[in-house]
Amino acid sequence: MRIFCKGNERIWKNAEFILKDLAGGKSGETLLVIADGNSYTNARALCDCARDFGLRPIIIDIDMYGGRERYLKMPVINPLKAAILNADICFMVTDQMLTDYGMFLGDSDDCDQALLGKSRRYTLEARGMDEWEIDREEILHYRERTEKLLAWLKTAGRLHVTTALGTDFTCEMGGKPDGMYSVLAIIPFYAEVAIVPNMGNVTGKLVVDGASQCAYGQRGFPIRPAIHGYQELYKQPLKISLEKGVVTDYSGDPAQVKRLKTWMESSVPQANIADEVGLVTTTSVENDKYGWYLDGTHQTHTVHVALGNNTRRNEVIHAPEHVDFDMHNPVIELDGNIIYRDGVFNDELIFTDHAKKAKP
Fold it and tell me: What is the pTM of this model?
């Protein structure tokens, strides 16, 4: 019976695409939907659709366990943990960025595992779910693009990124970085290849004209609302220099410089290492309009470099300290081939089978 979806074929089709095409839901499987007061309607619509084709859904309202912006401080809740671990499929449908599976399971590694889709635990970008005009073929295409690019990067030598504002850095791939992953479990609009470079393999300048991740806010820094989410994009870009993967210099707006210095130097070990190069592979405009990243980060047409203190480089993306810094409208070269420029991926090149050409 269609309760929350009745008369709204759009939200029904969107829910069906998410459940069947992206999550691979099958009749008889259990579905856990983690929601809060802001997202309960979408959660219920998702469950109505799931029930209609044989899934067995349940909703847990996490407002009962702490309330908005308090989830990071709460203890692991055993019944919720048990529900997550035993569900065939799990969706986080909250409207907030301060929730992840790691905090509910008591292990930050589970955040990484969920982002990579290894556990069928998804973060659903549910805002505006009744407004989406999903292009199914487009979404499936950029998800395939992500996997094709990942395969090429695994055999590549050098990644080179520039922007008109002055970003110019290289990441030596060496055919075997410490870690590399396709981030496809923030659905339906987001996609990324996340590279954990070998220690010392990122050199150059970052001109951060985009947002820096809300991890600053999570760690107690006073970030006031600005043009996009919580970030001060109206100020001059933050400039960061890297030599062999280590921050050697930084300049820009005094408040941002002070914040960066305090964050890097107060961490143990210091968070002054290039921990990740993230290539956003979605070209969906809906990613920016409805996306889960409400702080203005991880938008289409960006590359981000994360600073942090990752000492487990071949195991996880996110160290105890990890902040992404976004650069808009990049030119991306891989082994001298331009794979992205002017908002367009060179899919003809990316979809070539580079793995077969790689040297043993």
Answer: 0.89
